Amino acid sequence: MKPFDVYPLFDVEIVKGRGCRTYDTQGNEYLDLYGGHAVISVGHSHPLYVQRITEQLNNLGFYSNSVHNSLQVTLADKLGTASGYEDYSLFLINSGAEANENALKLASFYNGRKRIVAFGKSFHGRTSAAVRVTDNPKIIAPVNAGLDVTFLPLNDLESITKELGKEDVCAVIIEGIQGIGGIRLPDARFLQHLSKECKRTNTVLILDEIQSGYGRSGKFFAHQYANIRPDIITIAKGMGNGFPIGGVLIAPHFQAVHGQLGTTFGGNHLACAAAIAVLDIFENEHLIENAKQVGAFLLKELNSFSQIKEIRGLGLMIGIEMENPVAELRRRLLFEQKVFTGSSGTHVIRLLPPLCLTHQDALLFLERFEKALREE
Ligand SMILES: Cc1ncc(COP(=O)(O)O)c(C=O)c1O
Fold first, then answer.
1. Which secondary structure element, helix H or strand E, spans residue 47, and what is its range?
2. Which pLDDT tens digits describe the chain residue by residue (376 residues)?
3. How many angstroms separate the alpha carbon of residue 371 from the centre of ligand 1?
4. What's the Cα-to-Cα distance from 24 to each of 30, 31, 169, 245, rounded to whole Å?
5. What is the enclosing helix (H) or strand (E) of 74?
6. CA distance 357 to 122
7. Structural element, H or E, at residue 277
8. Ligand 1: distance of its center to the CA of 197 in Å?
């Protein structure tokens, strides 16, 4: 047997990571401005993270959700405090797609409706409902096509008033900042209008903070820049710093019903130990403040590059839109300058580094980025 060949691969294998650095099989060191796709939040192999997971594994790796697991209670408590959502409840699963899948189900159980509103260029995952609310027909299989979804343009207030006014929309799902769509920000006025219209029409507002959340934007959640409180918030990626875990934050007006949602692996002991360690490191090392400051510095400096068409982002979630396709530039950054970056479509480089990126590392990246551009 061999792996199912669905990923276009760079010819490099990473075998070790420390902080914002990764190392390949030849011992080459790379600066990680990609964070394994926005997943590495507290840095690779952080000592406290390694210690907590090791200790937990030495005690108990897994038991089922049919017995008490006080780690889930501790995690929910710490997450409530860190995010400012103390009065919400937490349902734990294993990935971002599962988080959105459960959020959409919960919304539909809540108001009994079926139609979903999502946005152009959205990405919400690859499972049944999550992929259907994703704006990419190429990854929607016939078996996923049944759900009734209306895609609206981002930041268009009028279309929100019109669609939600029909009072048949179950939920609106929107990313805190669109990631795969090319780092596109919903503006604050739009989010405030959306929140108001959802309340007025009994539509559930789901904020997908899977990529933009967990401190990446410089606040715990990107939507907190707009001072709104969604009904449901979905999280994953940075939550476990690489240990698979996702969560659904649920407002107090949703009633929990035994057996309505469930999972075998979600909220297991090892995953909770990883996620609790992440929140402790956030607090000890002020990583959200760091993401805000280092991100603002990067955004300011990148603005002076004449080859860049547009810079978008907040904190350490940055999109660099170039005049030309970026595939060759990313290849040079990786193989010549030893810098990992992400991309979005053909023309956008995405920076999603660990939130512990230092000012010095940001400068090093800028230096290497300039060198890679010089060779264009
Ligand atoms: C905004 C957003 N939602 C959902 C997902 C899906 O998460 P996962 O790959 O963990 O299922 C992603 C993944 O990139 C994402 O960026």
1. helix 47-59
2. 999 999 999 999 999 999 999 999 999 999 999 999 999 999 999 999 999 999 999 999 999 999 999 999 999 999 999 999 999 999 999 999 999 999 999 999 999 999 999 999 999 999 999 999 999 999 999 999 999 999 999 999 999 999 999 999 999 999 999 999 999 999 999 999 999 999 999 999 999 999 999 999 999 999 999 999 999 999 999 999 999 999 999 999 999 999 999 999 999 999 999 999 999 999 999 999 999 999 999 999 999 999 999 999 999 999 999 999 999 999 999 999 999 999 999 999 999 999 999 999 999 999 999 999 997 7
3. 32
4. 8, 12, 49, 26
5. helix 70-83
6. 27
7. helix 269-285
8. 26
CA of 229 to the centre of ligand 1 (A): 21
Helix (H, G, I), strand (E, B) or coil at 163: helix
- The ranges assigned to domains in the chain are 59-285
Place of tokens 């002076």: 304
Of ligand 1's atoms, which has the minimum distance to the CA of residue 175?
1
Rounded to an integer, what distance in angstroms lies between the CA atom of residue 307 and that of residue 64? 54
Rounded distance, CA 182 to CA 348, Å? 6
Q: 376 CA to middle of ligand 1, Å?
A: 32
Among the atoms of ligand 1, which is closest to the Cα of residue 100? 4
Atom of ligand 1 at shortest range from CA of 127: 11
HSE-CB at 92 with a 13 A cutoff on CA atoms is 26
Please tell me the CATH code under which domain 59-285 is placed: 3.40.640.10
- CA-CA distance, 21 to 192, in Å (whole number)? 39
Residues lining ligand 1, CB < 6 A?
95-97, 100, 123-125, 175, 179-180, 208, 210-211, 236
DSSP result, 138-160 = GG--GGGTTS-EEEE-TT-HHHH
In angstroms, the CA 226 to CA 208 distance is 15
What six digits make up the tokens of 338?
A: 């030893």
- The ligand 1 atom at the shortest distance from the C-alpha of residue 237 is 10
Indicate the burial class of 197 (C-beta count within 10 angstroms; 0-12, 13-18, 19 or more).
buried
> In terms of residues, how long is the chain?
376
